Amino acid sequence: MGSVLTVKNINVYYGAIHALKGISLDVNRGEIVTLIGANGAGKSTTLHTISGLLRSKTGDIEFLESSIAHVPAHKIVAMGISHVPEGRRIFQGLTVEENLQMGAFVTKKDRIAHNLEYVYEQFPRLKERTSQIAGTLSGGEQQMLAMGRALMSDPELLMLDEPSMGLAPILVDQIFDIIVNLNKAGTTILLVEQNAQMALSVADRAYVIETGRITLSGTGEELSKSEEVKKAYLGG
Amino acid sequence: MNFLSSLISGLSLGSVYAIIALGYTMVYGISKMLNFAHGDVIMIGAYVSFIMSMHLGMNGWLALLVAMFVCTCLGVLIERLAYRPLRGTGSLAVLITAIGVSYFLQNMALLIWGANPRIFTSLFNGMAPIHAAGGQLNISAESIFTIAANIIIMIVLTLFVNKTKAGKAMRAVSEDNGAAQLMGINVNQSISLTFAIGSGLAAVAGVLMCSAYPVLIPTTGAMPGIKAFTAAVFGGIGSIPGAMIGGLILGIIEIFSRAYISTELADAIVFGCLIVVLLVRPTGLLGKKVHEKV
User: Fold this and answer.
1) Whether A12 and A105 share a structural domain
2) Is the same domain home to A161 and A69?
3) Range of B105's domain?
4) pLDDT at position B116, please?
5) How many CB atoms lie within 10 A of CB B265?
6) How far apart are CA B245 and CA B253, in angstroms?
7) A64-123 pLDDT, tens digit each
């Protein structure tokens, strides 16, 4: 159970706003780790910094024992981190299949067909809609497409940002089932969620983030029993 | 017959506008900026081709290839040196820089080639016009080649954008730059490629335009540049078929206004039509409204 991702003391600014104040966390191979916290706490910013869209002024980010803090975003994907951003951000004007092809942009040619098959296996709905324009999919289907697209690059680590956002409860269950399945199939997962209850129920470990700082961490079970977490995030 | 020959001139002029408009629309699509120096790249292309064929005695078609190469490099260089450092600083800074690049290119041409007009020799010099309808309708070789070039460019470009990996990546970057990076797409490379294609096509447009309208001065590219930009907006900026349709319609309106209404008013009519279209359809004829699903 080696460490896949180690984030050490990152500080990220949006202009004058100090968004992340010394965040450190780590993710081990095979785990589901979740990052919970209120709106604006810095969850998405953390993921954006890991995937290289934002830069930290301090500290380091190590992925599979090499530093990625200064690697450009488009190269980080090829190293094995796939990021499903908040709001899904699928390519609305492209077809389902073209979206998946974009997900395989850095994938070796001989792996693409295999990965496509795997994605269609996980998300049979997408297979029925290969040539449909992605912008016309329902919210749940768009989330599946965003996840499928991320899986096309065979990631070692899959980062999911609010996969349950805007989905009906039944779809949320479905998406979380898929997350657990992907994890069982060997993908390490870093999950950002506002739906803390759902997230803690599937997570091996969890971090609570408040105004740019990690305030609590522990196993999913520990945190779901913690009074502080209950009060702040679980509505009790 | 007058009508038909005007229509053909209109299509021919419109094809030039369409080819130029492609450069505007593709660059706008991918980097959300208006490259106002694009018109002047056309002028540079025409000068390079002129110098190659007239002063160095190169074959006209070979000179065109050299001009395309020079313009491609120029476009990539302009993006790299002038626009890329400003990416993410807001559109006003980039817009003003583009206008600055435009004046820079015009003045550079003035310095190198002087203000005296050069008379461009048509690429199709010596090719006989086609006589149709019992000799009443003459179609020049320039018209035929320009219209044909436009059709071929449109087909090739549409295939490129829809079928190739690099083309699809360009569409992905156009839609969502950040998400494209998360796919592993090198956004800088994609934008450079777009500038390269647009500028290479600008050279083609320059040579075709000067073959039909042979007076070449450092500001030759300015007016067609503005008109082609209008065509791109008319058709829906960001849309490749929109650039084609916008260009053709604009060319036809311009020639018909000249032929049937007034030469002086032709430009006013062209821009008047743009205003009407934008009032009715603010996104242009084929422009997409961006709507997001949450």
Assistant:
1) no
2) yes
3) 2-125+135-280
4) 92
5) 12
6) 12
7) 999 999 999 999 999 999 999 999 999 999 999 999 999 999 999 999 999 999 999 999
User: Is the separation of the CB atoms in B47 and B54 below 8 Å?
Assistant: no
Asked if residue B181 belongs to a domain, the reply is: yes
Q: What is the pLDDT of residue B55?
A: 86
Which chain A positions have a beta carbon within 8 Å of B175's beta carbon?
91-94
Does residue B114 carry a pLDDT above 50? yes
On whether residue B291 sits in a domain, the answer given is no
Tell me: do A23 and A131 sit in the same domain. no
Inter-chain CB proximity A82 and B182 less than 8 Å: yes
Residue B220's nearest CA partner among B15, B2, B48, B14 is: B48
Domain that holds residue A94: 88-154
- Interface confidence (ipTM) of the complex: 0.91
Residue B18 falls inside a structural domain: yes
Chain A contact set for B294 (CB, 8 A): 87, 139, 165-166
Q: What is the CATH number for B65? A: 1.10.3470
**A102–B168: do the CB atoms touch at under 8 Å?**
yes
Identify the pLDDT of residue B150: 95
- Which residue, A131, A154, A177, sits at the end of a domain? A154
Output the pTM of the full model: 0.90
Instruction: Tell me if A30 is assigned to some domain.
Output: yes
Mean pLDDT, residues B116-139: 82
**Pair A163, A121 in one domain:** no
Tokens of B279: 């009032």
Domain count, chain B: 1
Please give the single-letter amino acid code of residue A176. F
- Dump pLDDT digits (tens) for B167-202: 999 999 999 999 999 999 999 999 999 999 999 999
Q: Is residue A201 part of a domain?
A: yes
Phi, psi of B186 (to 5 degrees): -80, 105
Q: How many domains does chain A have?
A: 2
Check whether B293 has a pLDDT greater than 60: no
Identify all chain B residues contacting A87, using CB atoms and an 8 Å cutoff. Answer: 292, 294
Q: Kindly list the residues from chain A whose CB atom is less than 8 angstroms away from the CB atom of residue B165.
A: 101, 105
Q: Which of A105, A139, A165 sits opposite B185 (nearest CB)?
A: A105
pLDDT over 70 at B1, yes or no: no
Same domain, A161 and A235: yes
CB contact (8 A) between residue A103 and residue B183: yes
pLDDT score recorded for residue B60: 87
